[in-house]
Amino acid sequence: MDVATITRSFTISDEHDRLIDELIADGRYKNPRDVIAAALNLIEEQEIRRAALHAAIDVGVKEIERGEGISFDDIKDLEAYLIQITDPILNRGKPG
């Protein structure tokens, strides 16, 4: 698959420059382009997750407006519920 290449020029901080050099020296990346590509992939993934979170919040707000919300007697009940619904997501892909 041919990928169009666009050349851009930008300035980075000394700290980021050192980080790029360290990542290449450690053998984790072949060159600065690969480091930047990995960083942009993470940003793209973060943006997708952020959009999904906002969509879920919108759904939740609409459910509450329709009277479909869940009531909790105290903060401990709320915390237990949040742990119950988030643990499977946070632990997805982790061994055992």
UniProtKB/TrEMBL annotation:
This is Putative addiction module CopG family antidote. It comes from Stella humosa.
